[in-house]
Structures are given as structure tokens and as C-alpha cells.
Specification:
Elements: H1 4-15, H2 34-48, E1 51-55, E2 61-65, E3 76-81, E4 96-98, E5 106-109, E6 114-116, E7 132-134, H3 143-161, E8 170-175, H4 189-192, E9 196-199, E10 207-209, E11 214-223, H5 239-249, E12 265-273, E13 277-286, H6 289-309, E14 314-323, H7 327-330, H8 334-346, E15 352-353, H9 361-367, E16 374-375, E17 379-380, E18 388-390, H10 391-407
Parallel strand pairs: 3-8, 3-9, 10-15
Antiparallel strand pairs: 1-2, 2-8, 4-7, 5-6, 7-18, 10-16, 11-13, 11-14, 12-13, 17-18
Helix pairs in contact: 1-3, 3-10, 8-10
Bound molecules: zinc ion (ZN).
Amino acid sequence: MDFKASLYKRLEKYARVDTQSDEKSQTFPSTKKQLVLAKLLAAELKAIGAKGVKLDKYGYVTAEIPATVKGNKPVIGFLAHIDTSPAASGKGVKPQVHKGWKGGDIVISRRHGVVLNTKNCPELAGFKGEDIVTASGDTLLGADNKAGIAIIMTAAEHLIRHREIPHGALKIGFTPDEEVGQGVKYFDVKAFGAKYAYTFDGDMEGSVEDENFNADCVKISVTGKSVHPGSAKNAMANAARIAAEIVAGWPENMLPETTENREGFIMFTDISGETEKAEISGIVREHDMKKLKAMERQLGAIVAAARLKYPLAKIELSFREQYRNMKEIIVKHPEVMGKLMAAVKQAGVTPRLKPVRGGTDGARLSFMGLPTPNVFTGGYNYHGRYEWVSLDGMNRSAEVLINLARKWAE
Ligand SMILES: [Zn+2]
């Protein structure tokens, strides 16, 4: 099956709509402009013949493709997100195709000095001969996650046109604000009505993800004691200096900049302080829950030592849960990954199972009762000007979706 022309047409159309989300916003969705694409997607779903198309007040777009077979088949959902990362501009995106890439430099923009090649992106090496899409040098592309939307829309159109393909009822969901960690906050899992779902929000071809970080955030507040520095001996507790000592006490080999794959870390994201008061905020990340708790105890020991050393200061430490590793839920439903692995192989792709070093909307959905692993879309270098996606990879991702629909009806 060759969907490349429609996949590109859609990706281009969606990429041109600026849908950047905003982590500082108090509204939901965080930016109004995401609704522009949401409206366009709802209209397009209607136009391709999807049923029950809805755009609600939160910006969630949902629709259904009715079953083509009788019997009690599980309802399967397919999800992608509308917004793009606040990390790079998504305004005035001009996608371009580098057809049949031969392996040399991909000049994204001569003027901006943005050139993509296997030196600055070794991951590209496996995709010679493919059609590579990039932006034009001054913005991100937004393949994260508009490639996913294009894949779902194109596969949906194919399934609607070809009712001879056997499948149960399928649900489609496009959600705002994934990039600011709020994507499914108001998502009505019950109303969506799927038993299992897949987010098409992964990266390079072949990658499938059923595991993400366990995530807590940490706050340490130090209350010091201010005394005139001239007479401070044995009387002052300098909160700012104590805070600095705690941060410096954390092992250097357990930081984001020194860890990879399955290694966890604590990152101190914000430190502010003066003599009377200092505050440290940070994030704790680890795939293994026991190791997450062990890291927190290790930080607790550093804080306890500081309390002993500085009895004049008051030091408080607290952790708050942010999200959990979806693996815990997904392993209880082995079919979800079993069918996905088979669907990927059937598309001629070798699946590569890897843990996400972050969270996904699927993780939150899994804990809301909808087990939702993540599937590749064929892109890479997300959230920046070097972002790229292979149209061939997108094509195979669309095949995976169609295979999945069939397999769940077997
Ligand atoms: Zn994404």
C-alpha cells in the first residue's frame, strides 16, 4: 500500500497551522490556536465518512469507524496529539520533501545554516532512499505529532473506503496539550468507549513503547537564620549556602546529563535563595519503582545529614507523584503488545521495544483504565529545527494501524 501522497498532503496541511502549547497558561487547552486545527480535523473526519464526530469544549476531537464484522470484538482506539512543543517556534512552518535521500547533506536552510546529515544525526543512516520531510530552518516541523494525526486520518480513510477489511469498532481521538503534560487531563475514557488504545506518537520506524518513567517531583525548603555577618559565628544559618550544599551532594552519575536508557536520575530544575530562605525544586525519574524510592531515600539521607550539620536551620523535604510507568498496567493485558508486535512485523518492520525516558499521554490513560502503548510514526529530532520524518516510515506506520485493526477482529 502506498499512502505517501495523502500522508504528505495531510502532514503539510496540519504543520502549517500553528498549534504550539504553553506551559504557563491557566486555560485548557493551553492555547486557543490549537482549536483551529481541532476544528479542521473534526471537519475532515466528517468528510471522510467517520461517524459520531465530536469536538468538545476542551478541544478533544473524537470519532468512530463502525465495525465491519459481527460479534463481540474489543473496541480499539487510536490517538495522536494536536499541539507542538513550546521549545521551538511552530509559526509559519513550511514543510519540504527531500525525495529519495541519497545519504549526503540534507540542507534544511542554507540561510539559517541548518544542515541535517549522519554526522549530527547518526540515526538518519538507516533511511537512505526514503523521502525525508523537514521544515525550512526557522521552526520545528511538528511531525511530533502531526505525522501521527496524518497516519491515523489516512488509515481511517482507507478503512472507511474498504469495508471489506474485517475489523471491530474503532475510535479516533485527537487531543491538545500533550507537550505540556496535560493532554488527557479531561479526557473522558468512558465516553471514548475503547477497551485498548494506541498513541501514534513514537519516533523512528520500528520503535514501540510500553514503558515510561515513574515520575515524582521534589521540593526542599530551607529556613535559615540571619545574623549580622560580623557577629555570626555559631549564630547564623545561611539557607542559600545550605541549599547549594544539598544540591552539590547529589551524585554526579545520577543526573539527566550523565544517564541513558534505563538509568534513573534526579534533576534540580530550580534553585532560589537568600540567607533566611532557600527553595530547591526538582524531578525524580526512574523506570523501576523500587529504584525510584531508593533514590528518594538517598536524597533523604543527604537532607538528614544537612539537618545534623546545621541545627539552626529548618530543612523540609517532600515528594509529589507526577505519573507512573504504564508497564505496570500493560503487562496485565498481554494481547495489547502481542497484537502490536505482530502488526509491526506484518508491515515488514522489525519492532524495537524501548523504554520512554519521559511520560506519554498513554501512560496517564493506562492508569485511567485504558491501556495505551505508543507506536512509531517515523520521525526524529523532535522539538527543534532539525526535526525530520520519513514518508516511507509514516507509510509503514499507517500499515501497522490497519494491521492492528484486522488483528483485533481475528
Ligand atoms: Zn509527541
